[in-house]
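quick one, 242 residues, struct below
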Amino acid sequence: MISLFKIHKIYIVSIFLLFSINASASVFGDIQASYYEQKGDSSFDKKHYVDAYEHYTAASEKGSGYSYFQLYAMNHNGEGRRKNATLAIQMLHKAAKLQYPMAEVILANRYLFKKPRNSQKALRLLESAAKKEYVYAYVDLYKMYSKGIGVQKNMNKANQYYRLAKANGYDIKRSLSKKSYSSNANKQLINDIQSGLKRLGFYKNTVDGSLPIRLTQVGGLDYNQPHVRLSSDSFGVSKSFP
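---
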């Protein structure tokens, strides 16, 4: 007859094995997602949009928020398939649900400026992106609190986000006053912007952290604003922060 001690030991071992199997499956899923993401990026850079769409779809099925965001952009722009605004927004929501920061910021702007407005959802999305040190979230939170957009005006909080943005290489006040980038302090930020825009098809040059040409108002985007400004012709956002 099996003792209670042995039954308890078998139960613990079973739970441990189940946890190990689930953890291994999760790691394997992440590896697969990364593989398809890279395949998607490679195909997109070659303008093989149909192949890119398939790879991003495969990665999204493995839980890739980045790939959902790429599918959002491709559906919006009509790359790899016909334009589909409804599906694009669905992909944006899925990317934000998986806490992909760029998706969170864009969706937050939609909640702030498109009906039905929901400033609380916008605030939660921006705070989530800010926890991942996404500099554009700091910028938008600074503007929300400094101008009282969807929240009560609070300069203490606004200045906190200003300092966080500056610590991450972006001086909001300097950018707003001079509308220029510092080639040293903001090189990494510019590199990130170039990488993102290249994947979206708006930037064709080398991703090197420099600005060899003036990029203002190319493809409906204003690159001299605190974050990539989204017009109604770009990503379905009616306006950026004023």
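Residues 179-186, 211-242 have pLDDT under 50 and may be disordered.
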